[in-house]
């Protein structure tokens, strides 16, 4: 991590900064990437007891899928890791920024409330919309999500959903809505939307 911060970011900042072009932008970008990388490496060790060298593709995919879009910033670290031969097994694709405006938090919460309590849409559409708003998953991933990605801890009754490798909790009251949706559908397929599946105990 120190090697990454010093030899990648510091060298780049020094090479681009001039009296006419201050380094404020590159410094801010470097801080963000270093911060997100540090969070990831701490999570990686605490969760899987692995470090940067032993990190797997599944670890990186799990981290990015189960959190905010700022987690995409670990890509620079793995580009550096590949170049230095620290880790050549993890490949994170380039993130393309969306052209649509960012959804304001108050609007997002209002839509969530409407989907959780309203009746203007059918249950499958409500479930799909909440998955998009809560977990920021691409629509293609939501559509392909299998019923066995939803699990219930029999000891606590807590509902979990798995996008990568590690299940993440489903908050109430969405957990109840999600389970109702699974129980009411025909069991003729495996995808959560629009048909199929069953709840699998965790």
Main β-sheet, spatial strand arrangement: 3-2-1-4
Low-confidence stretches: 13-25, 195-202
Overall strand count: 4
* Mass-distribution shape: globular
What is the count of structural domains?
Answer: 2
Report, as a whole number of angstroms, the end-to-end distance. Answer: 35 Å
Total DSSP helices: 8
Averaged pLDDT, please? Answer: 76
In what range is the share of β-strand residues? under 5%
Structural class: mainly alpha
Protein name: Core-binding (CB) domain-containing protein
Structure description:
It is built from 8 helices and 4 strands, in the order H-H-H-H-H-H-H-E-E-E-H-E. The radius of gyration is 20 Å and the shape is globular. It has 2 domains: 82 residues, no CATH class; 97 residues, no CATH class. With 202 residues, the chain is mostly helical.
Keywords:
202 residues; mainly alpha; 2 domains; four-stranded mixed sheet; 8 helices; 50% helix; 5% strand; disordered C terminus
List the helices and strands and how they pair.
Layout: H1 2-16, H2 24-48, H3 57-65, H4 75-83, H5 105-117, H6 123-135, H7 139-144, E1 150-152, E2 159-161, E3 168-169, H8 174-184, E4 200-201
Summary, kept brief:
With 202 residues, the chain is mainly alpha-helical. It has helices at 2-16, 24-48, 57-65, 75-83, 105-117, 123-135, 139-144, 174-184, and strands spanning 150-152, 159-161, 168-169, 200-201.
């Amino acid at each position: 991590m120190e090697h990454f911060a010093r030899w990648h970011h510091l060298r780049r900042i020094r090479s681009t900064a001039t009296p006419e072009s201050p380094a404020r932008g590159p410094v801010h970008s470097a801080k963000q990437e270093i911060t997100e990388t540090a969070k990831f490496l701490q999570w990686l060790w605490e969760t899987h007891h692995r470090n940067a060298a032993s990190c797997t593709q599944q670890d990186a995919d799990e981290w990015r899928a189960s959190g905010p879009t700022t987690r995409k910033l670990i890509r620079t670290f793995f580009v550096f890791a590949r170049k230095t031969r620290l880790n050549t097994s993890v490949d994170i694709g380039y993130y393309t920024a969306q052209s649509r405006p960012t959804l304001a938090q108050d609007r997002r919460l209002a839509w969530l409330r409407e989907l959780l309590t309203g009746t203007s849409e059918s249950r499958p559409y409500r479930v799909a919309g909440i998955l998009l708003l809560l977990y920021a998953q691409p629509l293609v991933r939501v559509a392909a999500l299998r019923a066995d990605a939803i699990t219930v801890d029999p000891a606590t009754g807590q509902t979990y959903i798995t996008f990568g490798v590690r299940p993440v909790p489903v908050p109430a009251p969405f957990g109840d809505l999600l389970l109702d949706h699974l129980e009411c559908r025909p069991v003729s397929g495996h995808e959560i939307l629009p048909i199929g599946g069953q709840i699998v105990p965790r």
